[in-house]
Each structure stands twice: as structure tokens, then as C-alpha cells.
Design brief:
The chain is an alpha+beta fold. It has helices spanning 8-18, 64-71, 77-84, 89-92, and strands at 34-37, 42-45, 55-56. The protein has 2 domains: 8-56, no CATH class; 64-97, no CATH class. The protein has 4 helices and 3 strands, in the order αβββααα. Strand 1 and strand 2 form a beta hairpin.
């Protein structure tokens, strides 16, 4: 089964491209670590790191099975409130509708 969403390489490519002077290099002025994550895998690098040197993210003290269980466990209402109580209440209304690819089906007010 094919995975949905952007690939790790697409994320890295976009990060590298955005660092060019004719793009948005100021976005990276304070960046120490850059991540490209697709929900299953992740790689990391620093500013101006060529794609071939971005390394795979690996957790040392947790198995893939444990990570899968954590990643696919729905948060309780109490956990959601602990994470977001400092935010305006309108933001909390969006939390339960966010899917794993970041889409909500709603437009953010800009």
C-alpha cells in the first residue's frame, strides 16, 4: 500500500531550496536542526546540509512497536487540555478534527 503525503526527500528538497537567497533564507536564521518527517520516518540535517548527508532519525530507548503504539494512541480529553489550555478556545475546537496528515477540512483564519 502506498503511503499518502509528501516524501522525506520532498521535504528535504524544499528545506534546501528555501535556503537560497531568492527564496526565504531568513526563515533559517536561527535554525539549529532541520527535520523532514512524513508520519512514518524522519531525517535531520542542519542548514546547507546536502540531501545525501541528512541522517535517519532513530530513537534509542524505544522499540518500533512501542513507537507505533504511542503514535497511534488517541489522546484523552485531559491530555489535550494539558497541551492546549494556554491557547484561545477557538483553537481547541480544531484539535479533535485534525487528521494524521495535518488537514482539518477547515480554513484557518488568516
Amino acid at each position: 500500500m502506498a503511503r499518502k503525503g509528501p516524501t522525506i526527500d520532498e521535504g528535504i528538497s524544499q528545506s534546501i531550496r528555501n535556503q537560497f537567497n531568492d527564496e526565504i533564507p531568513q526563515l533559517f536564521a536561527y535554525s539549529q536542526l532541520l527535520l523532514s518527517i512524513n508520519g512514518h520516518d524522519g531525517r535531520y540535517g542542519t542548514c546547507h546540509t546536502p540531501m545525501k548527508f541528512w541522517a535517519a532519525w532513530r530513537e534509542e530507548d524505544i522499540t518500533d512497536t512501542q513507537m507505533y503504539a504511542l503514535r497511534n494512541h488517541q489522546l484523552s480529553t485531559e491530555q489535550i487540555h494539558a497541551l492546549f489550555d494556554h491557547r484561545p478556545s477557538a483553537d481547541l475546537q480544531l484539535v479533535p478534527t485534525v487528521n494524521r496528515w495535518g488537514g482539518t477540512g477547515r480554513q484557518w483564519a488568516g
